[in-house]
Amino acid sequence: MKSLNDLNVKIYADGADLKDMLAVYKEGIVKGFTTNPSLMKKGGVTDYKEFAKNVLAEIKDCSVSFEVFSDDFATMEKEADVLANLAENVYVKIPITNTKGESSIPLIKKLSAKGYHLNVTAIFTLKQVEEVVAALNPQVNSIVSVFAGRIADTGVNAVELMKKAADICAKNPNAELLWASCREFYNIMEAEESNCKIITVPNSILAKHKNYGKDLEEYSLETVQGFYKDASGLGFSIL
Fold this sequence. Notes:
This protein is α/β, with parallel strands linked by helices. Helices cover 44% and strands 17% of the residues. An eight-stranded parallel barrel has the order 1-2-3-4-5-6-7-8, surrounded by six helices. Helix 6 packs parallel to helix 8 (158-169). The model has no long low-confidence stretch (mean pLDDT 95).
């Protein structure tokens, strides 16, 4: 039976529910975790620092990304200082721009020079990838998060773009390319094909891993059996 652990790409779980995070962590498939403000809102998180501390108390041997909240760079830096010092396995997520479209590159350079592990997020273009890779400290492990799923939503071939992004990231030995905004399980295979180092996968999609490598004839039969069971349960009659 195929195993996701046989792939080169590392699977990170994307979410902000500690119970769910620990469940997939214990399965041994996930190699890291990412969070963001939208996921925290969805997960009902009310105290950011308390949530982060609770997560880090349980997950100590793989990276966990926490994002800054502010929209001005001076406050972002202060928030990054707090987050980076919570634990050694923390990666601080910095958006590529603020809401005004102002570049975060100067801040990224500054934080990376401090030795912080960064996860630069919301990247959509190869130009942004180039700027980020050039700004990151080559002596420090960092993540370059390209939103391949959202890019594909625009009709662009995400695999081809990510292959080019991987070539750019290769210029910095410690910059790992991450396939973000996973839409379906097969994106994991596409991330592998694209030479991405990481893909973030929501738990709802990760749950489909039990089908990985399944015989398609068997899967076909299971599907027909499922349809028949549901039809029988409805009590419908065509004749």
